[in-house]
Amino acid sequence: MTLVxxxxxxxxxxxxxxEWVEGTSDKTVKNVNPxxxxxxxxxxxxxxxxxxxxxxxxxKAGKEWAKTPLATRAQVMYKAVxxxxxxxxxxxxxxxAESGSTRIKAEREWAAAxxxxxxxxxxxxxxxxxxxxxxxxxxxxxxxxxxxxxxGMIGPWNFPLHLCLRSVAPALALGNGVVIKPASDTPITxxxxxxxxxxxxxxxxxxxxxxxxxxxxxxxxFVKHPTPKLVSFTGSTxxxxxxxxxxxxxxxxxxxxxxxxxxxIVLDDADLDRAVEAAVFGKFFHQGQICMALNRIIIxxxxxxxxxxxxVATVKKLPYGDPSLKETFVGPLxxxxxxxxxxxxxxxxxxxxxxxxxxxxxxxxxxxxTVLSEVKPDSDAAQNELFGPVALLIRAKDEQDAIRIMNNSxxxxxxxxxxxNLERGxxxxxxxxxxxxxxxxxxxxxEAHVMFGGEKASGVGRxxxxxxxxxxxxxxWISIQKPYREFF
Length: 488
Known about the structure:
The protein has 488 residues and is α/β, with parallel strands linked by helices. The termini are far apart. It is built from 16 helices and 24 strands.
C-alpha cells in the first residue's frame, strides 16, 4: 500500500443502514486521482441486496426522523455546518485529489456546499400547511405538508460535494430518509464524506445510506426499487432521459439537473474588458466541466475582432496543470477518454471552418485551455455540450441574430448577456430560452436560497430555497366536517 493509499484507506467501506461495511458485490470501485493517475482507494462495490437494505432501513428510520422536533433536525444541520468548518482543509484536499478540482474551485465548492447545509437548517420551520374555506357548511379544509418519504440521490463527479448536498441536506432537513449512489469516480466526496459528516452531526442511524457501485449492477434497481418516492439526479441529459423514463414507468417523481449548452451574448455596447473577464471565468472554471459553463460566446460582429483579441490574450495567461498548486486555474479532465473526445471536437470544428486561436494540446489529462473563433452556430461543436476547456467564439449580425443563435439549442440551463444598458440586458434576458440568465455576469451562478433549474433538455424540477421545500415534500388534503352533513 502506497502512502497515498494508506491516507485514503478509511474510505474503503460503504455506509449502509448506519454501519461502515464492505459491499457484497463481486465487483470493485477503483478511485483514481485524475491528475497523477494514482490509485487512491479500492472498495468492494454495493450489490442489489445492499441497496435493498439501505432503502428499507431509510424508510423505517426516516419515519421516526420525520417525527423528531423541528429543532432537532435544524440542530443536525448546524452541526453538519460545523463539521464542514472544522474539516475545511480535509474537504478541499479530497476534492483536489478525487475530482481533479483546482484549489480555487475546491474552495468555492466547499463554500457553496456549506451554504446549502446552512440554508437547509431553516427548512424544518418553513414547512407550511394551509386552511382553505369550503362550499360545504361546517367543513374545514386543511392542506398539510409532509416529508415525501425516501429520496434516492444519484450524485455527479464534477461538483460532487455541493451538488449532492443540494439534494441531500434539504431532503434530510425536511424529514426524509436518503440513499445516495455517488458517481463511481468520486465515491468519497459525492457520498461517503457526506455520510461521515452527518453521522458525526448526530443524524440517527439508518436515515442516510451510501451505496457505491456500477450502474450496470444497481443503476436501474436504484430507480425501480419500490421505496424511493423521488429520484434526484445531476448529470448528462442522455442518462437523465433514461432515469426519467424508468421513473415514469414506476410513477416516481424526479428532480433532474442535466446538460447545458450555455451561451453568453456580448452586445455591441458591452464593456469589453468586463465581458472578457467574465467569459474566461465562466468558460474555464473547473476546466469547463460544469453544467452551467459557457459553451458558446456569441459576439456582435461590430466588436467581434476586438473581443477576440482581448479574450485570447487573457486565456494565454491562464495557469494550467497541477490542480494542487494555488495558482493553477485549469486542471485535469476527469478521464483520458474526455481528453480524446475534446481533441476530436477541436479537429472537427477546424474542418468545419473554425480557426484555432490558442491551445489544442494535451499533456496527460490536462487539456490546454483552447479558443476557437469563427465557429459556425450550426456546427456539431456549437450544438453539443462540450464539458471541457474549449471556448467557441461565434459571430452575430446584431442583437436579434444573437438571440436566435442562443436559442437554437436543445438545451436551456443557464446563460448571460453583457451590455452597459441594464434594461436592454433584461429585455434580451427575457427572450433567452433558459431556466437561468444573468445580466453582466457569467453563467456559473448558484445561490442556496434562489431557484435553480433548466428548461428543454436541461432538466426537470427546481432546486434551492422554497423550490427545494416544494420538491422534497408532499401535500395532502385533510378535511374536517364539524357538524354532520345531510346527504339526502
